[in-house]
Design goal:
The protein has 287 residues and is mainly α. Helices cover 40% and strands 8% of the residues. The strands form five sheets. Strands 1-2 form a two-stranded antiparallel ribbon. It is extended and about 80 Å long. It binds zinc ion (ZN).
C-alpha cells in the first residue's frame, strides 16, 4: 500500500540524484503531506541533477555558480517544447532573462528521459502553472520576456530594447509587487502611457487591470523611479565633474568651446524639453 510521505520543501518529479550542501530550494513550503511518486507519463523530461545545467549541461563549480530554474521558465519549457523540467533543477544564470529562458536557451534544452514520474502534487502544480499562463494570454505581458517581440518592446516603450527595459526594472527596488501587478507591469504601464498617451481606461483593457489599479501603478512607479533611478542616472549630481569632462566631452566640443582646457565641462541644452511658463494670449505666445 502506498502511504503518503511527509516531506519538507517542494514536490519534485523524481528524487534528487546528488547531495549538494549549498543547494537552495526554489520555494520553502511548510511541512506538508506529499503523495508518493507513482504516476508515470509519456512526457519527456530533463535531468534532475543539481550540479549540471539543465540547458548546456555544464557542471556547477565555485567559479561557475548556477541558479534554480524559476517555475515560470519550467512552465515556458513545458508549453513550448513539451519537456518537463523537475522542480529545483539548475541552470546557468545567463540562460535566463528575468524568470524566463531566452529563446536561444530554450532551443538548446535536451530531452534526457522519455517518460516522467510524477506524484499528484506535481501534476496539480503543472496544471495550475499552465492555466495561469493561459489566463495571461491576450494581455500585454512584460513579465514573460518571450511574449513580446523585440519590435513590440521598442514600439511600446519609445525605443527601449528588452534588455534596457530589464535594466531599468532592476533599478526599481523599492516598489512592492502585488498579486495583481509586478514591478515590470507597473513600469510598462508608465512607459506605454508616456509613449502613446492612451487613457487609463484603454490601458486597463490592454493590461487586464482595473482603472484604479492603472492609476495606482502609474503613481507608484513614477515615485519609485524618481527615488531610485533618477539619482543614479540623471541630473548633475549623478556623476563627478572629473568623470564628465573625461568621458563625456568630445575633442571637437573642447576645441570649439573650451579652448582645449581639459577640466572645462560643456553642456548643450535643447530648449524643446525645458518647461517654461507661457503667455495665455495666443498672439503674444506665438509672437
Ligand atoms: Zn548552462
Amino acid at each position: 500500500m502506498n502511504l503518503p510521505q511527509t516531506k519538507l520543501g517542494t514536490a519534485t518529479c523524481q528524487s534528487n540524484d546528488d547531495d549538494d550542501p549549498d543547494f537552495l530550494s526554489e520555494e520553502t513550503l511548510p511541512t506538508e503531506l506529499i503523495s508518493p511518486i507513482s504516476i508515470q507519463l509519456n512526457l519527456s523530461s530533463t535531468s534532475n541533477s543539481h550540479r549540471r545545467c539543465t540547458v548546456c549541461q555544464k557542471n556547477s563549480s565555485d567559479r561557475h555558480r548556477q541558479v534554480v530554474v524559476p517555475h515560470e521558465a519550467r512552465t515556458q519549457d513545458f508549453i513550448q517544447k513539451c519537456i518537463v523540467i523537475p522542480a529545483n533543477s539548475r541552470c546557468c544564470p545567463n540562460h535566463l532573462l528575468g524568470n524566463y529562458f531566452t529563446q536561444e536557451s530554450i532551443s538548446m534544452i535536451p530531452k534526457v528521459n522519455n517518460t516522467t514520474r510524477f506524484n499528484r502534487s506535481d501534476i496539480t502544480e503543472l496544471l495550475d502553472r499552465v492555466r495561469e499562463t493561459l489566463t495571461l494570454n491576450g494581455k500585454l505581458n512584460f513579465d514573460c520576456a518571450h511574449s513580446l517581440s523585440v519590435e513590440d518592446y521598442q514600439r511600446l516603450t519609445d525605443s527601449l530594447t528588452r534588455n534596457q527595459f530589464e535594466a531599468v526594472a532592476n533599478t526599481v527596488t523599492d516598489l512592492r509587487k502585488s498579486e495583481i501587478r509586478s514591478v515590470k507591469t507597473c513600469l510598462a504601464i508608465l512607459f506605454v502611457k508616456v509613449r502613446t498617451g492612451l487613457s487609463n481606461s484603454i490601458l486597463a483593457t490592454l493590461f487586464s487591470l482595473e482603472i484604479h489599479q492603472i492609476q495606482r501603478a502609474t503613481h507608484a512607479v513614477r515615485f519609485s523611479l524618481v527615488k531610485s533611478f533618477v539619482p543614479k542616472f540623471l541630473g548633475f549630481q549623478h556623476m563627478s565633474h572629473e568623470k564628465f569632462t573625461r568621458d563625456h566631452t568630445t575633442p571637437t566640443a573642447r576645441t570649439l568651446f573650451a579652448d582645449n582646457q581639459p577640466e572645462t565641462g560643456i553642456f548643450v541644452l535643447n530648449g524643446t524639453y525645458i518647461y517654461l511658463p507661457s503667455f495665455s494670449k495666443a498672439d503674444i505666445q506665438y509672437a
